[in-house]
Amino acid sequence: MNTTGSLHTLPTNSATALLEALSASCVADSGAGRVHDPITSTMEGSRHRAPLPPREWTSALRRLTELTRASKGSTPSWWKPATTFCGGLETRLDSNCDSFDEAIRGQSKRSSVCLQLTLAGWGYFQGDRDEPRKVSPGTLIFVRAPSQHHFYLPKESPGWTFAWIAIRHPYLKARLAKRAAIAGPLLEIASDGVLGTSLLRLVSGAIEKDFRDHLEAEMMLVEFALTLERWTQQARDSVPQDQRLIDEVRSHIVAKLPEAIEVRSLAAEFGMSRSHFSHFFRKRTGMTPARFSAEIRVQKATNMLIETSVPLKAIAAACGFANANHFCKVFRRFRQLSPANFRQLCR
């Protein structure tokens, strides 16, 4: 994987290609036949099209591309990433690169909070023990680094263009890390909303370094942190209580895999006795915690049967079943087919 050059700003040739793609769907060509882009993972062919953004994100991407192209790369003496932040605009075009994560931006050995907003194209995000999730324009990845998450560009994607920032400010990093744990790793934001506007201002500041001094940069960080906290709280309040309960219980079940979490342990997470929690959960969702847990594990097993050739014994172990026989019995109860027959029908 190539990580040479500045990873905080887009190099001129790529910025030009993005700008031309936005205005006329032109193709970047370096004259020498190849464009070497330090923010892509390998040497790219000369006729790769940058992914085009949807209309609502075109203006933001154009603005960041122009700023990056005009950037002189100079940094004020007071600008220290450990107390401010770093960020930029990146495009990934090479599907031969299986994954790229916080290590690309030099964060693997430094604790930070990373935010990555997709502006064009798409990729996949996968959290620890989670299934891969598609990340399209308007989706914000919000994670603490280092962690077990990773994201990657599949072969079928036209490319992935995103703006990002990494925050290592001691106080704000700790505060935002707590918010990330509550809000979850993927947020859907509007191009004209307060959160998107605040984030893009930080990204442009990371590119231009146009703050008067470290105090103004820190003030912008604080304002962004408060905006993010307010936005995530409002989003959380708008979700019905029953759905929040299901989402939280699902998270606990998935996090425990490959072990099967006991209802008693789930109840303890919510500060209730086993019987109280079972009654509480069933009243709000119409199902028992045990059945819901089995349903989540069967769904994971279903995905593995469809997408992999892993033996049934290994699927049983990965999904928290006692053995292959136990897995087959529970799976048949939910799907009315044995795992082997189900896999055959899906192929």
Task: Please tell me about this protein's structure.
It is built from twelve helices and ten strands. The N terminus is likely disordered. The chain folds into two domains: 170 residues, Regulatory protein AraC (Jelly Rolls); 104 residues, Arc Repressor Mutant, subunit A. α7 crosses α8. The chain has 347 residues and is of the alpha+beta class. 47% of the residues lie in helices and 14% in strands. The longest helix has 25 residues. β1 and β2 form a beta hairpin. The protein has a five-stranded antiparallel sheet. It has a three-stranded antiparallel sheet with strand order 6-5-8, with no helix packed on it.
Structural class by sheet pairing and helices: alpha+beta
Give the uncertain stretches in residue-range form.
1-47, 97-108
Strand order of the largest sheet: 3-9-4-7-10
**What is the mean pLDDT?**
77
Helix content: 40-55%
Largest sheet, if any?
Answer: 5 strands, antiparallel
What is the secondary structure topology, with strand pairs?
Elements: H1 12-24, E1 34-35, E2 44-45, H2 55-70, E3 85-92, E4 112-121, E5 123-126, E6 133-135, E7 139-145, E8 150-152, E9 160-167, H3 170-183, E10 186-188, H4 194-208, H5 214-238, H6 241-256, H7 263-269, H8 274-285, H9 289-307, H10 312-318, H11 324-335, H12 339-345
Helix pairs in contact: 1-2, 2-4, 3-5, 4-5, 6-9, 7-8, 9-11, 10-11
Keywords, please?
2 domains, alpha+beta, Arc Repressor Mutant, subunit A, 3-stranded antiparallel sheet, 347 residues, 12 helices, 5-stranded antiparallel sheet, globular, Jelly Rolls, disordered N terminus
